[in-house]
Design a protein that fits this description.
The chain has about 140 residues and is mainly alpha-helical. It has one domain. About 60% of the residues lie in helices and about 5% in strands. The protein contains six helices and three strands, in the order αααααβββα. It has a three-stranded antiparallel sheet. Helix 1 runs antiparallel to helix 5 and helix 4 packs antiparallel against helix 5.
């Protein structure tokens, strides 16, 4: 028996596992917002910086491979966790606040089903297909 794979359907979760991952994203968003409030952060700062991680999408101007790397750096929990560690080590509340805003953004994206990207294109994520990639798969 020969098994074939299709980049449109391989490499992402589906069904209940996807729903659980999205709900985890929502929980992360809520906890990050709660932590931000406990750090006495300005909600104006939160609103002003909430979408900043999306600037990482500019990498797609250089192509899907570079775009995916840039997007994934901006939308992984690793960056904000390193920032939070630096803030905690230095006792700098502002760094902790920035880290919670970043974590909240990543959680929000996960809640909406936007996952880490594949070099196959923007719509190919670990949480499934989004946008044009999803529409093309339905049409196929």
């Amino acid at each position: 028996m020969t098994q074939t794979s299709d980049v449109r359907t391989v490499g992402h979760v589906t069904g209940a596992a996807r729903v659980i991952l999205q709900l985890e994203g929502g929980a992360v968003l809520a906890l990050a917002a709660l932590a931000f409030g406990r750090l006495d952060g300005s909600w104006g700062l939160f609103a002003a910086l909430f979408l900043v991680p999306d600037l990482s999408m500019l990498g797609y101007l250089a192509g899907p491979r570079i775009g995916a790397v840039g997007y994934n750096i901006g939308h992984s929990y690793l960056g904000p966790l390193l920032l939070a560690a630096a803030g905690a080590a230095r006792g700098e509340t502002l760094l902790l606040q920035l880290a919670t805003i970043w974590v909240a953004h990543v959680g929000f994206d996960r809640l909406l089903g936007y996952g880490l990207k594949s070099a196959a294109g923007f719509g190919f994520t670990h949480l499934g297909l989004k946008g044009k990639a999803a529409r093309e798969t339905v049409a196929a």
